[in-house]
Specification:
Elements: H1 7-19, H2 22-29, H3 33-47, E1 52-55, E2 58-61, H4 63-90, E3 95-101, H5 107-120, E4 124-130, H6 133-141, E5 147-151, E6 159-174, H7 186-189, E7 194-197, H8 205-215, E8 222-225, H9 228-236, E9 241-245, E10 256-260, E11 266-274, H10 280-292, H11 294-303
Parallel strand pairs: 3-4, 3-5, 7-8, 7-9
Antiparallel strand pairs: 1-2, 5-11, 6-9, 6-10, 6-11
Helix pairs in contact: 1-2, 1-4, 2-3, 5-10
Length: about 300
């Protein structure tokens, strides 16, 4: 756009171009005819060309005027589109949401959230970043992310969380050593190494250990790994037993069996976000998640276990 031309003047010009009559054009844009005529003359002076040929017979568009009209329409269209997009982003209905996900969390939760959000806000895109929960917390505090899907517990000043899901612990044993779940007792695995995702990779590490100890299992040693898939491979190779989240059962590893033990802890996943900084897009996101997981959250509330509603 020519630097001296305002959008308002472009609208005046296009009104004259459409009406080919200064008085009717002035009525169309709701200004006085002398003011509109002056604005057009000033525009011609700025551009150094004649845009309209004026005569007693009427007003005609000149060749420079025709060229200017085509680009003026495009400029106004882009300006209106830019304003509309800015308003939409300000309302949290367009743009981009940056979401982190911890490897300890079931990715099915991410896809469920993404699909629910896109149904409500199809013009708002979710981009994901994968990192350990503590790293995601740092990114949230730097405003490098809007929200994070993480495991609990997390204790990080400045973050709030919304619990959305809970799942039990499963024990993983070599398949040839278990015939039925009732056969699994602390005594039977007391001499086995515990394969466990490290505290860096899963914030529930201490909760796993405390639950297993309370159940009666005190492993002689612990083999830390970074992923649940690694834990399954260790067990499949005969190197101990593992404690994992039940969602891990969708990983198909040969030579292992899963066993649910009622006395072992239940593990939570939550949406983390920066406290007191809720942009429109974050507010919209949290509202969608709250609705999508209302059944799970009501159940946790009824159990009296969820402190973040």
């Amino acid at each position: 756009m020519y630097p001296g031309v305002e959008l308002r003047v472009m609208r005046y010009f296009l009104a004259v171009q459409a009406e080919l009559h200064f008085t009717r054009a002035a009525e169309r844009v709701h200004v006085a005819q002398p003011s509109l005529s002056k604005q057009i003359r000033n525009l011609e002076d700025e551009l150094g060309v004649t845009l309209f040929k004026r005569s007693r017979r009427g007003v005609e568009l000149t060749p420079p005027g025709e060229a200017f009209a085509e680009n003026a329409r495009q400029s106004l269209l882009y300006a209106e589109r830019a304003a509309a997009q800015a308003r939409a982003v300000g309302a949290g209905t367009h743009g981009k949401l940056l979401m982190g996900i911890s490897p300890a969390v079931d990715t099915a939760l991410l896809f469920r959230i993404r699909d629910a959000f896109h149904r409500q806000y199809p013009d708002l895109q979710i981009e994901t970043v994968c990192a350990f929960a503590t790293e995601l917390a740092e990114m949230l505090m730097r405003s490098d992310l809007h929200v994070g899907l993480i495991e609990l517990p997390i204790r990080y000043s400045g973050l709030d969380v919304m619990n959305i899901a809970r799942e039990p612990t499963a024990l993983v044993l070599p398949a040839n050593q278990i015939q039925s779940p009732t056969q699994v007792t602390p005594e039977r695995i007391q001499d086995r190494t515990l394969v466990l995702v490290s505290e860096r990779a899963d914030l529930a590490y201490q909760k796993f250990l405390a639950g297993l100890k309370s159940w009666g299992y005190r492993p002689p040693s612990i083999q830390p790994v970074l992923t649940a898939a690694q834990a399954l491979d260790f067990v499949g190779a005969g190197n101990g037993v593992a404690a994992v989240r039940t969602s891990v059962r969708k990983l198909h590893t040969k030579g292992i069996s899963y066993c649910l033990v009622e006395d072992l802890p239940w593990l939570d996943a939550a949406i983390a976000y920066r406290r007191n900084i809720r942009t429109p897009v974050v507010r919209n996101f949290l509202e969608v998640v709250r609705r999508e997981f209302s059944e799970e959250r009501n159940k946790m509330r009824a159990e009296g276990l969820n402190r973040h509603y």
